[in-house]
Amino acid sequence: MKIVKLVIALLVFASTIQAQSPEEKGLSVARAADKADQGFESSLVNLKMVLRNKQGQESTRFMENKTLELTEDGDKSLIVFKSPKDVEGTATLTFTHKTTSDDQWLYLPAIKRVKRISSDNKSGPFMGSEFAYEDLSSNEVEKYGYKFLKNEQFNGSNNAVVEQDPVDPKSGYKRRVVWYNLDKNYRLEKIEFYDRKNSLLKTLTYSDYKQYEGKYWRAGKFLMVNHQTGKETELFFEDWDLKSGLADTDFSQNSLRRAGR
Amino acid sequence: MGLIVLRRLWFVIVTFFFWHLSYAQSEEKDLQGDFELELQFDNRFFFKDGLYESQERNFLSLAAQPEYNLEWGKGNHIFKISLFGRWDQHDDNRTHFDVRELYYQRVKNNWELSIGLKKVFWGVTESVHLVDVINQTDQVESFDGEQKLGQPMVHYSNLTNFGNFELFYLPYQRKRQFPAREGRVRFPEVVEREDFDIDSDMEEWRPSFAFRWSHYFGPVDIGISHFYGVGREPLFTGLGTESQEFFYPIMNQTGIDVQAVTGPMLWKVESIYRDTEFQDFLALAVGAEYTFSNIASKGLDIGVLLEYLYDERDDLAISGFANDLFIATRLAFNDVNSTEILGGMVYDLDHKSRLFSVETSRRIGDSWKVEIEARIFDNLQEAEFLHFFRDDSFLQFGLSKFF
């Protein structure tokens, strides 16, 4: 009797998988990835950004990023620029929201001014790099519509390839295609960005992954290549500090002023 | 007098700092120091000869701004020192030195306490800074009033669920410096810092107090402040006559500043009511800033700014903005060199006078920056304060190196 029940349960389960549409399957992958990354609480990391033009000329920037994980609302983050020296101390504070516009403030250290800025400019370049502001904001599930495309072997691992359509009409992309590594707790391996005319604009590749706290995968390097301009930007992350003990008070306008000084 | 004060303050802060330093070193080994230096060369050229005797036309100058930051105890103890010095070829008053910042700050969860010389900015509008009253303006350094002298203070702030509450005790008033005989953008008669009295027996030691509450509600930021003490802006009576007087009045000033964002539009309101024995008045600035972002996916942002300025002082307003419009555009190329251009005009609706300005900057390599600034005074009428500066339109070129 028990066996019959089990067989029936399995059949029902299998049929639900079968019945899942590509949209549902895509959403469930995104949800699973989101869940896999939950619980890091807060993170602290130093970044190095290398900008490279078509001729291979490089310029380098340093930043510091703090993130506070929130589940009922989007994450909070604070970025402080360390170089180039003329913008040292310039800092941004962002409160991400799942469905409404983000709240964002900019701190200008020379005149000690905190200024509210519009978060509408998602598609513009971040610090002259190939990363748009939206590429660096927190990946909230609600920000996209999903479609599962296929399973694929990528770098020797089993990957789910999912198409994401931005909900926000202000996004610079028509769609993104994302590779989720199913063997490594849904970490991201690659994203292809398609512009509003649906032609391939950029490819982002993640590498030098390390696992923290026995659970969370964090890449040591992001490489963004712009296929239309030939420019590229590398982001290097130095030692992620997860569960770093940051609190809500570390993400206020006061802490923004202190961070930039 | 000022120097003695600075020395005393310096002593107190340095003692406090080293006491904490030794404490910190015994407790935790996470001391982080950071030194920075900016060297600047600039040349300011005036299109016309000066209206007044001895004024020069071309001014070369050099400036240096070293800064040292130290933090320990997981960033809960902060010490900062920031100095500024400028040498000017002709204007002896523009050749000056200032301690911009020199303070120790203690942070604990939601409160902060700072002791020392600090700079504090309040406000939201671009063309005028009405509510910003804590620091004295470095008049010889900046025409737009954005450069400030370090202000001695004890500053306490407490962040709660109902907003940020701040208290300021400002024990000492610093006086404004004005251009010397050879300098430009000055009055017919040279006025020196020492010519200004403070309307109190305690002179510069007349303490001032300030309070500010600020909070945000979704897309809206709001601040309400009150200042009681020595006004930072001097009053001039009977200018050009035998009985002329210059002084800093005791004032009460209440200010409000609001900023809201709706999509690509920023809305700004700033207003003050100032009450002194000699005058009381209301001043207001309301405006909006709309940004067209990432135009044609090339990264270019174009901002359009419009502000209306009102001041009950009429022609007595030292700012000269009694009933004026400010129209400007901001171009940010968001390129590797952070190229930016801000061009604007203040138009006086009563006198039809115009004040144009262009500021542009661009980084060269990783540690150099060029800046070009122009200010044009056009069609200034005799009834206006700014009439004294009618021939002082200038073009400035600056080159900075960062270490």
TrEMBL record, chain A:
Domain of life per record: Bacteria
Keyword field contains Cell inner membrane: no
Keywords: Lipoprotein, Signal
Signal peptide: 1-19
Domain Uncharacterized protein TP-0789: 74-258
Classification via InterPro entries: TP_0789-like
Protein name: Outer membrane lipoprotein-sorting protein
Taxonomic path: Bacteria, Pseudomonadati, Bacteroidota, Cytophagia, Cytophagales
TrEMBL record, chain B:
Domain of life: Bacteria
Protein's UniProt name: Porin
Phylogenetic lineage: Bacteria, Pseudomonadati, Bacteroidota, Cytophagia, Cytophagales
